[in-house]
Amino acid sequence: MFTFFLSPLFAALIVPPIIFFVKGIKAGGNKRKVAIYIAVTIACIILAAGFKIYYDINHVIGTYNGYESDEIVIDGVTYVEDYANEYSSSDKGHYLGSVVNVNANERRTEPKFVWDVKGTDEYIYVLYAYDGTFYKKAD
């Protein structure tokens, strides 16, 4: 699974602010240089956070069918809603990406966000707005 924090983009956005911050500290008495270095550091960190959020939302890993999204398909594996399980939202693990509904016009609709579930590979946790649901691999 691709991790944004290990990507070259993330490194390119975070390493320069660290260098700027260190240079700002070494500038010592020059308050103007220190202020500029710190401002660039903060701007780069905000930019990196924005890219992370944008990546998470647009990292599509599958699709869901219908408005009620009874089925989710990720890499050819179908998952169906399962309310009879012993998991809670605190069992969600790593973020996997989002799934979208592709209608007849090939337009993407609102994404639903998907996490794996700790301790099992049979379930995924799907969050849409405030409503979280567990899905189980279909037999």
Provide key terms for this protein.
35% helix, alpha+beta, 139 residues, 2 helices, single chain
Give the biggest sheet: 7 strands, mixed, barrel
What count of helical segments does DSSP give? 2
Based on DSSP secondary structure assignment, what is the total number of beta strands?
Answer: 7
- The percentage helix is 25-40%
Distance between the termini: 24 Å
Shape: elongated
Bin the strand percentage. 25-35%
**Low-confidence runs (pLDDT<50, min 5 residues)?**
none
Number of domains: 2
Q: How does this structure look, described?
A:
It is a single chain. By secondary structure, this protein is α+β, with helices and mostly antiparallel strands. It has two domains: 4-58; 60-137, no CATH class. Helix content is 35%, strand content 33%. The chain has two helices and seven strands; from the N terminus they run H-H-E-E-E-E-E-E-E. The protein has helices at residues 8-27, 31-58; strands at residues 60-65, 71-74, 77-81, 92-100, 112-117, 120-128, 131-137. The protein has a seven-stranded mixed barrel. Helix 1 (8-27) runs antiparallel to helix 2 (31-58). It is elongated. The mean pLDDT is 77.
Summary, kept brief:
By secondary structure, the chain is of the alpha+beta class. The chain has helices at 8-27, 31-58; strands spanning 60-65, 71-74, 77-81, 92-100, 112-117, 120-128, 131-137.
What is the secondary structure topology, with strand pairs?
Layout: H1 8-27, H2 31-58, E1 60-65, E2 71-74, E3 77-81, E4 92-100, E5 112-117, E6 120-128, E7 131-137
Parallel strand pairs: 1-4
Antiparallel strand pairs: 1-2, 2-3, 3-7, 4-5, 5-6, 6-7
Helix pairs in contact: 1-2
